[in-house]
């Protein structure tokens, strides 16, 4: 997730062990067309496929594996394949997957995967879920870029290592992942570390620098060590290296009487990469990456320029665009996004897309984000994890190169996939109440709100059609969103009505209704009823 250059990163105290993986047997290659065939390389400022054909990655970020959930968010809301189907149909040909070392630990557990919505993911490790996503995305012609987003799920870090996750663990885990996917060209490479940035103040900075020569802080040197170690075990991968925020590794300090250097977004400053390039032992595998955000995410001085937005291309040229324009290396804009609630942000996004260019020779990018629960940007889909934000999509659409194998170019999703095989949709008209059992699970809680699931099993002998589930919440708790049913609120009662595409709850079948709410998670929801009958 993006952060501004002047913010302070959280450190971590967890201990990370070596990842244990088993190689895949897949030999499938991406479909001809949008993302080319075989493994990817570079030629000047262009990514090319195994046949030397130009390829442009026009992708999206689907986060969650870097958080405490340790797997993709939204798996509580709809079937995992539906997400990928819709991404491909909208034209996103690449999926950037953030992860943390915690998701790679032996014994790591994926959280908040709804059993009713995604029964085939139950009991799988985070890596096993990732394997399924990789395999299915490959059938759509999509590519996967792995992004080491955080050293632990606790938060981002200025340096590529913290005490709990030393550089040796970082490199070892990357090598294991590279070996794991060595025979699967759907996975194209490693985004080595997300948003290295300054810490402390110049001239006594303690964060990531670029070209300063300090082996403990020079991100360029660390990227070389990691990139070359990865290429030893998987010479086919692209090595994606993000920028820093301030080349010195220290934040600007107006009181030190030292002229301040140009600083940008975390991970967004590659101004020194031309002078101090990343040197890999294998040619044509280096891709630089920058992050870029609008004024609503953080107010930068250039947003006040009277020439805005026409002043932006010169700023982008300075920070990272020159690498493409001078044919040095490809640049992937790995994160950029906004809620677009500000008219100024709309101008910013339109200017950025124009700057990156159209067609297969334009700059590569992965938009932030698919997820609606990115607090400062929102997502391409809304809180129901399905409805497309057409304002955003319409700006991005002309620049997208759809993967070959994607279907339904309108981006809409057939509701049939969301129907669980255990749910009867027969219009029998039986509104019987029978009997039921219920469980309430708090999946996540934070200051001011929580996420929960109410699971009800029809233990009667007949289908309940249509079904309606109610439960009681404490006074002051308000509904934020719901899924797997039409969820509404009246006073302290939440009601989940069977959706039109699956109105019936068959005898012996269960349904899990997810929701988020504003207010305390304790006491938990109670008094669950199915069509007016109290569940045990």
UniProtKB/TrEMBL annotation:
Catalysed reactions, as listed in the record: Endohydrolysis of (1->4)-beta-D-glucosidic linkages in cellulose, lichenin and cereal beta-D-glucans
Family matches, as InterPro entries: CBD2, CBM2/CBM3_carb-bd_dom_sf, CBM2_carb-bd_dom_sf, GH, Glyco_hydro_5, Glyco_hydro_5_CS
Leader sequence segment: 1-30
Limits of the CBM2 domain: 429-536
Keyword Signal (UniProt): yes
Superkingdom per UniProt: Bacteria
Pfam families: CBM_2 (PF00553), Cellulase (PF00150)
Region (Disordered): 399-435
Bias-annotated ranges (Low complexity): 409-435
E.C. designation(s): 3.2.1.4
Stretches assigned to coiled coil: none
Entry keywords, A to Z: Carbohydrate metabolism, Cellulose degradation, Glycosidase, Hydrolase, Polysaccharide degradation, Signal
PANTHER family the record matches: ENDOGLUCANASE (PTHR35923:SF2), MAJOR EXTRACELLULAR ENDOGLUCANASE (PTHR35923)
Family: Belongs to the glycosyl hydrolase 5 (cellulase A) family.
Protein's name according to its UniProt entry: Endoglucanase
Annotated source species: Dactylosporangium maewongense
């Amino acid at each position: 997730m993006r952060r501004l250059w002047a913010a302070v990163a959280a450190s971590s105290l967890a201990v990370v062990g070596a990842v244990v993986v088993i190689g895949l047997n897949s030999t499938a290659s991406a479909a001809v067309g949008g993302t080319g065939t075989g493994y990817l390389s570079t030629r000047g400022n262009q990514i090319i496929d195994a046949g030397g054909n130009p390829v442009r990655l026009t992708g999206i970020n689907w986060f969650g594996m870097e958080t405490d959930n340790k797997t993709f968010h939204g798996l509580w809301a709809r079937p995992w394949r539906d997400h990928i189907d819709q991404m491909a149909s909208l034209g996103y040909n690449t999926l950037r997957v953030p992860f943390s070392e915690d998701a790679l630990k032996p014994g790591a557990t994926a959280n908040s995967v709804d059993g009713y919505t995604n029964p085939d993911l139950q009991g799988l490790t985070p890596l096993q879920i990732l394997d399924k996503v990789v395999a299915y995305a490959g059938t759509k012609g999509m590519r996967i870029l792995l992004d080491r987003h955080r050293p632990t799920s606790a938060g981002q870090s200025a340096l590529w290592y913290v005490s709990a996750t030393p550089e040796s663990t970082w490199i070892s885990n990357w090598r294991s992942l590279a070996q794991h996917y060595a025979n699967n060209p759907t996975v194209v490479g490693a985004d080595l570390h997300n948003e290295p940035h300054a810490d402390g103040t110049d001239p006594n900075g303690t964060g990531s620098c670029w070209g300063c020569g300090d082996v403990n802080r020079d991100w360029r040197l660390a990227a070389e060590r990691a990139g070359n170690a990865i290429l030893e075990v998987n010479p086919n991968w692209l090595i994606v290296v993000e920028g820093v925020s301030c080349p010195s590794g220290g934040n600007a300090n107006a009181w030190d009487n030292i002229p301040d250097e140009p600083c940008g977004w975390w991970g967004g400053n590659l101004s020194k990469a031309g002078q101090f390039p990343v040197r890999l032992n294998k040619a044509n595998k280096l891709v630089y990456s920058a992050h870029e955000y609008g004024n609503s995410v953080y107010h930068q001085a250039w947003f006040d320029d009277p020439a805005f937005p026409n002043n932006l291309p010169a700023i982008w040229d300075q920070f990272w665009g020159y690498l493409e324009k001078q044919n040095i290396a490809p640049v992937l804009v790995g994160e950029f996004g906004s809620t677009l609630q500000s008219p100024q942000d709309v101008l910013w996004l339109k200017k950025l897309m124009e700057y990156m260019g159209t067609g297969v020779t334009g700059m590569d990018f992965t938009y932030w984000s698919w997820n609606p629960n990115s607090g400062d940007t929102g997502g391409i889909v809304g809180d129901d994890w399905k409805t497309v934000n057409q304002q955003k999509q319409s700006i991005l659409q002309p620049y997208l190169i759809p993967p070959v194998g994607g279907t339904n170019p309108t981006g809409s999703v057939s509701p049939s996939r969301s129907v669980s095989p255990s749910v009867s949709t027969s219009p029998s008209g039986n509104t019987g109440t029978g009997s039921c059992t219920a469980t309430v699970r708090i999946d996540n809680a934070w200051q001011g709100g929580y996420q929960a699931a109410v699971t009800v099993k029809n233990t009667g002998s007949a289908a309940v059609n249509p079904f309606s589930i109610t439960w009681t919440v404490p006074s002051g708790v308000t509904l934020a969103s719901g899924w797997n049913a039409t969820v509404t609120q009246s006073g302290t009662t939440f009601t989940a009505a069977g959706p039109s595409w699956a109105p019936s709850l068959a005898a012996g079948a269960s349904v899990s209704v997810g929701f988020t709410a504003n207010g305390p998670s304790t006491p938990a929801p109670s008094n669950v009823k199915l069509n007016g009958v109290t569940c045990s």
